Amino acid sequence: MTTIDSCNARPILDSRGDVTIEVILASGRTRGSASAPGGASTGIHEVPAFPPDGVDAALEIFKHKVAPRLKGMDAEDQAQIDATLHEIDGSDNLSNIGGSLSISTSLAAAKLAAAALDLPLFRYLNPRPPEHMPRPLGNVIGGGKHAVGGTDIQEFLCLASGEDSWKNVRANVAVYKAVGKKLSNKFPGMPLGKGDEGAWVTSLSNTDALQTLASICKEMTERFGFPCRPSLDIAASSLFKRNMYLYKEGKKTPEEQIAFVEELVDKFGLAIVEDPLQEEDFSGFAELTRRVGGKCLVVGDDLYVTKVERLKKGIAEKASNAILIKPNQVGTLSDTKAAVDLARKEGITTVVSHRSGETTDSTIAHLAVAFGSYAIKTGIVGGERIAKLNELARIQSQIRGE
Ligand code: PGA
Ligand code: ZN
């Protein structure tokens, strides 16, 4: 038993300069702390990040309602901790206490328990070594709600799939740098910006941006000797207005959107396509998955928001073959794990993910390993992104006993 005897929550900044929450729990001299990231292209079915009165209200709730309840509880009893958070909240969507307070408390408890048992978090959560390390999926070119004046498509990513995490991370960096060089050569004398996740921002069209990424991926696949494949997060909900997908180059009906994505998958050999359709279109997802699911992972992010109920619907409708796992979308570690367990049972691939507003908390690297996830989407550069990538490499060394 690891008795929680001290509980603190404080405001901290995320990578966008927005205020978020850090929770520190302690048992004697052992501590566990975790913080919450924040999204910009959030799904409408996510738990709200904060209570209606904002982050200060969340901190008050922690002080007056959460801390007194947690004191004396066992940090190793994750189910009880998370049930208590739901009970204090009282709603069915954590809307009274907010997901940021909830996930940082939930993860801090797990980290405290792991520290008390002298185990790294990934091992505490899953004593069995993973069959493979999660492959890094990194954002190379960014647009949508993460960048002003960039592509309509939110993320053009690279998935490095070698055997070694460190080499994979290095391959993604090499792709990122080579794409940056290519973009600056294309527009001599023009500034080259970065979006919220550190990805390059370009005025190229969606297809030209993808073409640029795909050709560099091919080059790096040859150089590194393992696949570096282009991928997309279309974040289609942010393009969807009045039953049409609005691109700078014109509108697409849902049927045209499916055909467009199918064409991109075929032409560029995409490894992953996330949120190709808006967050309510289970049947559109199913149609696309039927067409490309044999050669590409179709990932639901806003579609599922890491929630078991929505994943169940997706499974029943064969909507996708993969799910994005963002712990703060659902608000507790137990709820996150429930989605992962259901996905695994049903043969749905999991990809653990950061948010566009991040802290230097590296917990998701441990979660991706403990969950045996196929990939971890966590950017390529920037302190808040490399915190997770470096942790992934450290975890690999621990597993290998290096
Ligand atoms: P967000 O975007 O963190 O801004 O919601 C990330 C994503 O859509 O995957
Ligand atoms: Zn997404």
Which consecutive residue ranges, at least 5 long each, have pLDDT under 50?
none
In this structure, how is the largest beta sheet organized? Answer: 8 strands, mixed, barrel
How helical, in percent, are the residues? 40-55%
CATH class of the largest domain: Alpha Beta
What is the number of strand segments? 16
Query: What molecules are bound to this protein?
Result: 2-phosphoglycolic acid, zinc ion
Q: Provide the domain count.
A: 2
- CATH H-level homologous superfamily name of the largest domain: Enolase-like C-terminal domain
CATH topology of the largest domain: TIM Barrel
CATH architecture of the largest domain: Alpha-Beta Barrel
Structural class, judged by helices and strands?
Answer: alpha/beta
The sequence of SSEs as H and E is EEEHHHHEEHEEHEEEEHEHEHEHHEHEH
Mean pLDDT score, rounded? 98
Question: How many helix segments?
Answer: 13
How widely separated are the two ends? 31 Å
Widest β-sheet, arrangement of strands: 4-5-8-12-13-14-15-16
Relative strand content:
15-25%
User: What best-fitting shape do the alpha-carbon axes yield?
Assistant: globular
What's the alpha carbon Rg, rounded to whole Å? 20 Å
Key descriptive features of the protein:
402 residues; alpha/beta; Enolase-like, domain 1; TIM Barrel; 2 domains; eight-stranded mixed beta barrel; three-stranded antiparallel β-sheet; 13 helices; 42% helix; 19% strand; binds 2-phosphoglycolic acid
Q: Describe it for me?
A:
The protein has 402 residues and is an alpha/beta fold. It contains 13 helices and 16 strands. It has 2 domains: 6-118, Enolase-like, N-terminal domain (Enolase-like, domain 1, 2-Layer Sandwich), CATH 3.30.390.10; 125-400, Enolase-like C-terminal domain (TIM Barrel, Alpha-Beta Barrel), CATH 3.20.20. The strands form 4 sheets. It has an 8-stranded mixed β-barrel with strand order 4-5-8-12-13-14-15-16, surrounded by 6 helices. Strands 1-2-3 form a 3-stranded antiparallel sheet. 56% of the residues are buried. Bound molecules: 2-phosphoglycolic acid (PGA) and zinc ion. 2-phosphoglycolic acid binds at residues 39-42, 233, 235, 301, 353, 355-356.
